[in-house]
């Protein structure tokens, strides 16, 4: 992999610009105030923004995810300094509900997806101490069902994605003892398929995104012994297609976001050398908008923050020069994870 | 968002039934930002939504308002939550609500909220909704046969309410349309392992084995039936090695097709588990090996070398398979 092909600075500007558009559209506070210091020529023109405007509005309810994607990308690219951290922290806290859970934005209902993102964002900023960890953990623990699965919120939708959110979140808060870990693990294992992969519920088709959630949760709880590593590793490496990109299911198109889900799973089960890493890095780099920054799902498609994060995180897992290392299970920078678990052994078990 | 339907839209501020409501804009924060004219409708609808939501007003006009908000942005989960609270409070007819979801689902079939709402309704309605739910997922799968949400909803319906009778036929039909549809293969496995009517793997192994073999012979590059075939012998390698239909399909593909990566891979598994290969199998592998001018080696070792050459992107995987061969085989 040659260094210098990643348009890091342009991606940073793209993320900061998107965040500003979002804030202004919502008439809420711009989180990334320093963007205002950028020269005007770097800000997207009003015309080219029209379509994005609407997408930004439609994203309003999941802004917490956006904050996590954007801030983690900035961190990996060594540019978290472009952000007013206090502003972010106070916004995150305003999204907290009295139940202890976090919403996707101010005035919305809490959900486990946004609760994990909120905890990840605070961990990233090294501000976990602003949280009442007990209160947040109790919210998460209440979402566990009798069979060990987790619901996403009080309305009860069940999915192995939520098992991951719960386990990752509680582990970061050092409160895994608040749930029945054994039952949680057994539920995940019950979602294992004949190909070694995992689906959203027992019997559902294997899907790389669900596999990441299940493998990540099993790794965090020290339960990787339940995984058929060779069988799953083969299925995962079969996801690499001719262009070098990875798809999420057989016969689907490759997509940059799977660089994260497939790669992180392969790393956790120690089988990442089974794919062609150089070809994958090439594919991700080919999905950059080299002029205006940002990364898309496939070459020449429109860029967005979601795929920019997954592209950069994927390159980080591939040890691309100049990008900070990211932890494959916690989806947080390795520095951050080390800080959370300083002196604890658990995170070391899958990294040599 | 299509704009033509929106042309008749009347702002809430000019609707007679809403004059008592004070809209609540999103928190402005310390930095007043230049207002943007774009999508006033979105903004006003959401401002009125916040007003009734914070006032916890569970009324018919609130219900109507959530419909409008969902139409603008079906991903907004808070709007859906509030809609369910209203439905519960007002005892809204749940069948009518199902109709409403029918209407918006086909254009939003990948939206988590819609499926979750649907499941919530079906759970409340109970077994009586089974047929409707199976038909509904069929309709969505006719548009996108790999829709993950639709499959997971369908599996839930089958397990909660039954309706297994026609499910294997339905899988056949979808696989006739597209034999590469991995979701349909997965559903097929789901049916044979979980349907109370078919006798499980033991009862279906033979007929399903033949079905998979037929699919493989038509498209040997199709990953799904190969995995399905293995799945029929899950956890029992002796049974797999002993099944003549399995080694025969490997041989046929090796003899007739250029796409033989999966055949070689399955053969490798069989050999690793103790298959004594017949002469034809040896000959078929030898032919490939000499075409590639590979050095002489044991049969499993040769299979690995061929695979490394045929599938360079995964050459490390095949090299690892070689290094893992039992001593007498390598
Ligand atoms: Zn994607």
From TrEMBL, chain A:
<comment type="function">
    <text>Required for male fertility and root tip growth.</text>
</comment>
<protein>
    <recommendedName>
        <fullName>Geranylgeranyl transferase type-2 subunit beta</fullName>
        <ecNumber>2.5.1.60</ecNumber>
    </recommendedName>
</protein>
<keyword id="KW-0808">Transferase</keyword>
<dbReference type="InterPro" id="IPR026873">
    <property type="entry name" value="Ptb1"/>
</dbReference>
<keyword id="KW-0677">Repeat</keyword>
<dbReference type="InterPro" id="IPR008930">
    <property type="entry name" value="Terpenoid_cyclase/PrenylTrfase"/>
</dbReference>
<dbReference type="GO" id="GO:0046872">
    <property type="term" value="F:metal ion binding"/>
</dbReference>
<dbReference type="GO" id="GO:0005968">
    <property type="term" value="C:Rab-protein geranylgeranyltransferase complex"/>
</dbReference>
<comment type="function">
    <text>Catalyzes the transfer of a geranylgeranyl moiety from geranylgeranyl diphosphate to both cysteines of proteins with the C-terminal sequence -XXCC, -XCXC and -CCXX.</text>
</comment>
<keyword id="KW-0862">Zinc</keyword>
<keyword id="KW-0479">Metal-binding</keyword>
<keyword id="KW-0637">Prenyltransferase</keyword>
<dbReference type="GO" id="GO:0048364">
    <property type="term" value="P:root development"/>
</dbReference>
<comment type="similarity">
    <text>Belongs to the protein prenyltransferase subunit beta family.</text>
</comment>
<feature type="domain" description="Prenyltransferase alpha-alpha toroid">
    <location>
        <begin position="55"/>
        <end position="331"/>
    </location>
</feature>
<dbReference type="InterPro" id="IPR001330">
    <property type="entry name" value="Prenyltrans"/>
</dbReference>
<comment type="subunit">
    <text>Heterotrimer composed of the alpha subunit RGTA, the beta subunit RGTB and REP; within this trimer, RGTA and RGTB form the catalytic component, while REP mediates peptide substrate binding.</text>
</comment>
<dbReference type="GO" id="GO:0004663">
    <property type="term" value="F:Rab geranylgeranyltransferase activity"/>
</dbReference>
<dbReference type="InterPro" id="IPR045089">
    <property type="entry name" value="PGGT1B-like"/>
</dbReference>
<dbReference type="GO" id="GO:0048229">
    <property type="term" value="P:gametophyte development"/>
</dbReference>
<dbReference type="Pfam" id="PF00432">
    <property type="entry name" value="Prenyltrans"/>
</dbReference>
UniProtKB/TrEMBL annotation, chain B:
<dbReference type="InterPro" id="IPR002088">
    <property type="entry name" value="Prenyl_trans_a"/>
</dbReference>
<keyword id="KW-0460">Magnesium</keyword>
<keyword id="KW-0637">Prenyltransferase</keyword>
<keyword id="KW-0808">Transferase</keyword>
<dbReference type="GO" id="GO:0005953">
    <property type="term" value="C:CAAX-protein geranylgeranyltransferase complex"/>
</dbReference>
<comment type="similarity">
    <text>Belongs to the protein prenyltransferase subunit alpha family.</text>
</comment>
<comment type="function">
    <text>Essential subunit of both the farnesyltransferase and the geranylgeranyltransferase complex. Contributes to the transfer of a farnesyl or geranylgeranyl moiety from farnesyl or geranylgeranyl diphosphate to a cysteine at the fourth position from the C-terminus of several proteins having the C-terminal sequence Cys-aliphatic-aliphatic-X.</text>
</comment>
<dbReference type="Pfam" id="PF01239">
    <property type="entry name" value="PPTA"/>
</dbReference>
<protein>
    <recommendedName>
        <fullName>Protein farnesyltransferase/geranylgeranyltransferase type-1 subunit alpha</fullName>
        <ecNumber>2.5.1.58</ecNumber>
        <ecNumber>2.5.1.59</ecNumber>
    </recommendedName>
</protein>
<dbReference type="GO" id="GO:0004662">
    <property type="term" value="F:CAAX-protein geranylgeranyltransferase activity"/>
</dbReference>
<dbReference type="GO" id="GO:0004660">
    <property type="term" value="F:protein farnesyltransferase activity"/>
</dbReference>
<dbReference type="GO" id="GO:0005965">
    <property type="term" value="C:protein farnesyltransferase complex"/>
</dbReference>
<keyword id="KW-0677">Repeat</keyword>
């Amino acid at each position: 992999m040659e260094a210098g092909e990643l348009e890091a600075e342009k991606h940073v500007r793209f993320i900061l610009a998107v965040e500003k558009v979002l804030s202004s559209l919502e008439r809420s506070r711009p989180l990334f105030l320093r963007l205002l210091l950028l020269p005007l020529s770097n800000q997207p023109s009003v015309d080219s923004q029209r379509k994005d405007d609407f997408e930004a509005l439609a994203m309003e309810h999941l802004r917490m995810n956006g904050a996590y994607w954007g801030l983690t990308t900035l961190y990996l690219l060594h540019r978290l300094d472009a952000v007013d951290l206090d502003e972010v922290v106070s916004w995150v806290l305003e999204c907290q509900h009295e139940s202890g859970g976090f919403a996707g934005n101010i005035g919305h209902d809490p959900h486990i997806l946004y609760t994990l993102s909120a905890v990840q964002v605070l961990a990233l900023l090294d501000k976990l101490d602003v949280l009442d960890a007990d209160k947040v953990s109790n919210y998460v623990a209440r979402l566990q069902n009798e069979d060990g699965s987790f619901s996403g919120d009080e309305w009860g939708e069940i999915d192995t994605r939520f098992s991951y959110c719960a386990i990752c979140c509680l582990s970061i808060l050092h409160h895994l003892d608040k749930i029945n870990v054994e039952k949680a693990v057994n539920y995940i294992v019950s979602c294992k398929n004949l190909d070694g992969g995992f689906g959203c519920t027992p019997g559902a088709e294997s899907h790389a995104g669900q596999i990441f959630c299940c493998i990540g949760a099993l790794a965090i709880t020290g339960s990787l012994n339940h995984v058929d590593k060779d069988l799953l590793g083969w299925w995962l490496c079969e996801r690499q297609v001719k262009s070098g990109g990875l798809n999420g299911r057989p016969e689907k198109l490759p997509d940059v976001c799977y660089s994260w889900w497939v790669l992180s799973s392969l790393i956790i089960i120690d089988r990442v050398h089974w794919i062609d890493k150089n070809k994958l890095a090439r594919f991700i780099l080919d999905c950059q908008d080299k002029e205006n920054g940002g990364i898309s799902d496939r070459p020449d498609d429109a860029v967005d923050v979601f795929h920019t994060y997954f592209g950069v995180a994927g390159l980080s897992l591939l040890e691309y020069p100049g990008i900070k290392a990211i932890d494959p299970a916690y989806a947080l920078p390795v520095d951050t994870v080390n800080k959370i678990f300083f002196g604890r052994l658990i995170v070391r078990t899958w990294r040599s | 968002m299509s704009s033509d339907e929106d042309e008749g839209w009347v702002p809430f501020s000019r609707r007679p039934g809403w004059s008592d409501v004070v809209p609540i804009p999103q928190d402005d924060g310390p930095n007043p930002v230049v207002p943007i004219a774009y999508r006033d409708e979105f903004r006003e609808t959401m401002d009125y939504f916040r007003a009734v939501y914070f006032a916890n007003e569970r009324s018919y006009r609130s219900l109507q308002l959530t419909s409008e908000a969902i139409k603008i942005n079906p991903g907004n989960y808070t709007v859906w939550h509030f809609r369910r609270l209203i439905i519960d409070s007002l005892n809204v007819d749940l069948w009518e609500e199902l109709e409403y979801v029918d209407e918006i689902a086909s254009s939003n079939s990948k939206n988590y909220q819609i499926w979750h709402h649907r499941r919530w309704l079906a759970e409340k309605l109970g077994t009586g909704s089974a047929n409707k739910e199976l038909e509904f997922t069929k309709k969505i799968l006719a548009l996108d046969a790999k829709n993950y949400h639709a499959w997971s909803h369908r599996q839930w319906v089958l397990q909660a309410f039954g309706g297994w009778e026609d499910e294997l036929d339905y899988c056949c039909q979808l696989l006739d349309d597209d034999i590469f549809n991995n979701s349909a293969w997965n559903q097929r496995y789901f049916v044979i392992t979980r349907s109370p009517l078919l006798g499980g793997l033991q009862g279906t192994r033979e007929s399903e084995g033949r079905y998979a073999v037929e699919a493989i012979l038509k498209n040997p590059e199709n990953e799904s039936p190969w995995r399905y075939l293995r799945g029929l012998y899950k956890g029992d390698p002796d049974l797999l090695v002993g099944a003549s239909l399995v080694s025969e399909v490997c041989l046929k593909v090796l003899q007739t097709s250029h796409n033989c990566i999966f055949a070689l891979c399955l053969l490798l598994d069989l050999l690793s588990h103790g298959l004594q290969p017949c002469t034809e199998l040896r000959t078929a592998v030898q032919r490939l090996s000499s075409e590639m001018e590979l050095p002489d080696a044991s049969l499993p070792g040769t299979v690995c070398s061929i695979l490394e050459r045929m599938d360079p992107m995964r050459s490390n995987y095949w090299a690892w398979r070689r290094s893992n061969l039992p001593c007498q085989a390598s």
